[in-house]
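Replying to the earlier thread about multi-chain prediction with a worked example.

Input:
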Amino acid sequence: MATGEAKAARSERANQRPELAALDDATLREALRRMHLIRKFEEEAENSYMRGLIHGTMHLSIGQEASAVGTCLPLEPQDYILSTHRGHGHCIAKGAQPGMMFAEFFGKETGYCRGRGGSMHIADVEGGNLGANGIVGGGLPIAAGVGLSIKMQKNGRVCIVFFGDGASNEGAFHEALNMASIWKLPVVFVCENNHYGMSMAIERASAVPNVADRAPAYAMPGITIDGNDLPLVAATAGEAIARARSGGGPTLIECKTYRIRGHSKSDRNLYRTKEEIDLWRSRCPIVRLEEELLGHDRFDRQALDAIEAAAAAEIAEAIEFAKASPDPDISELTRDVYAN
Amino acid sequence: MRELSYAEAIREALGQAMEADERVFLFGEDVGVYGGAFGVSGDLVHRFGTERVIDTPISELGIAGVAVGAAITGMRPVLEIQFSDFVTLAMEQIVNQAAKIRFMFGGKATVPMVVRLPGGSGTGAAAQHSQSLEAWFAHVPGLKVIQPATPHDAKGMLLAALDDPNPVLIFEHKLLYKTKGPVPAEAYRVPIGKAAIRREGTDLTIVGTSLMSLKAEAAAARLAEEGISAEVIDLRTIRPIDFDTVAASVRKTGRLLVVYEGVKTMGIGAEISAMIAESDVFDFLDAPILRLGGADMPLPYNPQLEKAAVPQEDDIVAAARRLKREE
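Result:
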C-alpha cells in the first residue's frame, strides 16, 4: 500500500523509469549493500583460495549480482529459495551472514553446514535458503516439492529456484516446470543465463535461443530480461512472486547475464575471447546501478562509497571470524549421516 | 486374529497414518482413482481426496524431487514408484539429494520421506519390470532400506518408516501383495533395523530377505522332515543390518546360508558373509558360508527361465543339505 508520503516521493521520481521509481532509498541501499557483499565475498574467497587457505574448488558469480539480489528483493523472510553450485550470491541475497558463509568455506565448525558441505552446499535453512546444489538442475524438482508443501500447508509462502542455462537441458527442468504448472504451484523459476555451461555455449547446447522460450510448452509466463539491470530484475521478480503468492501459478524468468570468472578454478577460458569478457566487464551491474542513481540524484558519490566501505568492513570481519573459528572435531566424523 | 493381505495391510497403514497426521500424503503414478498399479492405494483417494492422494505425471526424477522438497519443508510424503525398476530414473534425487541433505547441511535439515517400491520377479514382466535393486540403495549412507515380508510387518514397518526422520525406502515384493496373514487393527510399529527369527533351529542359519525368507521357511519345514534343523531369519531391514541377530544365530548353528533375490554378485549376501567373516563369529563356523542369489543376468521372460534365474525352495533345500554335510 502506497502511503501519501510514498506517493509524493514517487511523483518526485517521475523522470525515472518505473522500475527504479518503485524502489525507495532504503531498498536501494540494501540492494547495493548486498551486491557489494557478494562481490567482495567472492573476491576475498578467490583471494583466500590463491593463498592456499581453502581447498577444493569454487564457482564464482562475479558479474551476476543483480539477478541474485534483484530476485530476492521482493521476498519475505519466510519465503524459500533453492540455489545452485554458483550460489554465494543467492545466499547473501536471501540474507545469510557472510561470517558463517566464510566459516563454511574454510571448513569450520561455525559454518552454515558445520564445515561438512563447503561452498557447493551452503544452506541457511532457518533463513529460507534450502541449499546450494552440486548437481546441475538438482534444485528444480525439489522446488516443485517445496511449492506443493506450501500449497498443502496453505502458509502463503513462495519458492524461488535459481538455475543456469545449462540446467535447462536437464530432464529435471522439464519435469519440474510441468508439475509446477499443472498443480499451479507458488514457484518462480529463475534462470541465470550466463551464456555458458562449463564451456558449452547456449547457442550450441540449446535448440531455442532463449530459455524462456520454453515456458509456453508448460503454459506459464516466460520472460527474458537483462539480468544485469537490478531494478528491472526486482520489478519482474516482484510481479512473478505476487502472482505465485496469490495462487496464479509459476513463472519462468530468464536473466541474461555473464560470469566474468571462469566456471571453476580449472577454467583457462579457452572457449571465449578476452574481448567478450571485457565487454561484459563493462556491463557491471553494480557500477551500472550506481551510475543510474547518481544520474537521478538518488544518492551522491559519498553515500555510495559509504555503502561499499561498510560492505568491505563486514567482509573483512567475516573472514576474521572464519579464520578464528575451530575446525570440526574428527571424533564427530559420522555425525548427522542420520537424524535420530 | 483378523487376516489381511499384504496390499491391504499397507493400505490400512497409509489410511491410519493420514488420519493421524495431516502432514502425510501419498503420491505417485496412478495411485488415485486407478488405485495403484498393484491395487495398493485402492480407495484411499475416495477417503482422503485428490489433494492428499495425488496422481503424478510420469516423471520419476521429478516426483522423487517433490518428495525431497516436501519433506524438508515439514510434510511427510509417501511416494510410490510404480515399479522399482523405474527408480533408475530417480537416482539423482534419492542418492544425491535425499540421502545427503542432512549431512551436507550439518544436521540442520531432515528429510522424512518414504518411498515404496514394488519389485521382484515372478510375474512374467521381464527384464525392466522385475528387478530387485535394494542392494544399490543399501550402499548409500543416509538412506534406510527395508523389505517387510509379511502383512504384519508391511503395516508395522510402514508406520515406523513414517515416524522416522530419515528417508526410508520400502522394497515390496510384488508376489507378496496377495499373501495373507494376521494384522492387528490398531496402528502399531515394527522397528526398522531389527531382524525376526521366523523359525528356531540348531544345525544351520538361513538368512532370507523379503519373499526369500518365506521360501526359506518353507524349505526349513521340509528340511526338518529330513532331520535337519534350520534356523530361519527374516532380515527385514537391509540398511542398517541387524548384525547381532544374525551373529547370535550363527554362533549357535555354525553354518550360514544367505538367500536373496537380487543379483548374487556384490549383493546383500556378500555383505552379511563379510560381516561374519570379519567378526569373532568366524571362529564358530563349521563350514564355508553359502550364498544363493539371483543369476548374473537380466531377468528373462519365459516362465521356466524366469524361475531358474532366482533362488527357489528346492535350491534352498539343496544348499542347506550341502551345508550340513560340510564339516
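The mean pLDDT of chain A is 95.

Feel free to reuse this layout for your own posts.
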